[in-house]
Automatic annotation (TrEMBL):
PANTHER family: PECTINESTERASE. It catalyses: [(1->4)-alpha-D-galacturonosyl methyl ester](n) + n H2O = [(1->4)-alpha-D-galacturonosyl](n) + n methanol + n H(+). The active site is at D93. It comes from Ananas comosus. One of its GO terms (molecular function) is pectinesterase activity. Residues 2-246 form the Pectinesterase catalytic domain. Its EC number is 3.1.1.11. This is Pectinesterase. GO terms for biological process: cell wall modification; pectin catabolic process. SUPFAM superfamilies: Pectin lyase-like. Keywords: Aspartyl esterase, Hydrolase. It is an enzyme of class 3 (hydrolase). The lineage of its organism: Eukaryota, Viridiplantae, Streptophyta, Embryophyta, Tracheophyta. Gene3D superfamilies: Single-stranded right-handed beta-helix, Pectin lyase-like.
Length: 251
């Protein structure tokens, strides 16, 4: 997407590095703005956690930015963030963190996960990390598309039963993720969401959808611990209310 590519290849298997340390680009200052760039972690599918972009920037806006990686591509770690018309690609938990983040009109693409991807895999797009119900955090997706890259779609169509894509799984106990009027491609599983392990967080998370479209939108088949949001409750998740966007996005 962006003609300028900022790339790196650090990953959590390197001695002394944690997932936090692997970011190609990390932003701490408030009010960060970026447009027309590409942030990449090129460590590859066998490297496990490898962050392309990590943000702790309050009131940050990223427009027409591409994030490329595999596991843990975009670490929206904390505070209020807006991603508009971005492209985000990865495999496992590739949008994660505990920010209050709104994603508007973004293209979200799953790419092949393993060095031998024909064997199959399970991929979760999001892993939100809210640790307390009082935290005003969560991921909200508006008018986004969730699909596979051309390479992933080719693998999926040959063996759809072994290539599984889910909208998210609960990294922490009060994980919160919402999709509003989003298009889900054929790769999204009917059940929609994936447990982290056992029944962890299934009674405390909030995973919701409203107005989902496409072959991967199947409200009747979704897991029982997810929700279909009533229209009168959508206002809670608007950019104006969820991240107070009317106060700073246009600044």
């Amino acid at each position: 997407m962006g003609a300028t590519v900022v790339t790196g290849a650090r990953h959590a298997q390197m001695p002394g590095l944690t997932t936090y340390d692997t970011a190609t680009v990390a932003v701490l200052a408030d009010g960060f703005r970026a447009r027309g760039l590409t942030f990449e972690n090129a460590a590859g599918p066998g490297a496990h956690q490898a962050v392309a972009f990590r943000s702790d920037s309050d009131m940050s806006v990223l427009e027409h930015v591409e994030f490329r990686g595999h596991q843990d591509t975009l670490y929206a770690r904390s505070l209020r963030q807006l991603y508009s018309h971005c492209r985000i690609s990865g495999t496992v938990d590739f949008i994660f963190g505990n920010a209050a983040a709104v994603f508007d009109s973004c293209l979200i693409e799953v790419v092949p996960r393993l060095e031998n991807p024909e064997k199959g895999e399970r991929n979760a797009v999001t892993a939100h990390g809210r640790t307390d119900p009082s935290q005003p955090t969560g991921f909200v997706f508006y008018n986004c598309t969730v699909t596979g890259s051309a390479e992933y779609l080719e693998l999926y169509r040959k063996k759809p039963r072994v290539h599984r894509v889910y909208l998210g799984r609960p990294w922490k106990e009060y994980s919160r993720t919402v999709f509003v009027r989003c298009y889900f491609g054929e790769v999204v599983r009917p059940e929609g969401w994936l447990p982290w392990r056992g029944d962890f967080a299934l009674k405390t998370l909030f995973y919701g959808e409203y107005g989902s479209l496409g072959p991967g939108a199947n409200a009747s088949a979704r897991v029982e611990w997810s929700s279909q949001i009533e229209e009168e409750h959508l206002g809670v998740y608007s950019p104006e209310n969820f991240i107070q966007g009317d106060e700073w996005v246009a600044c």
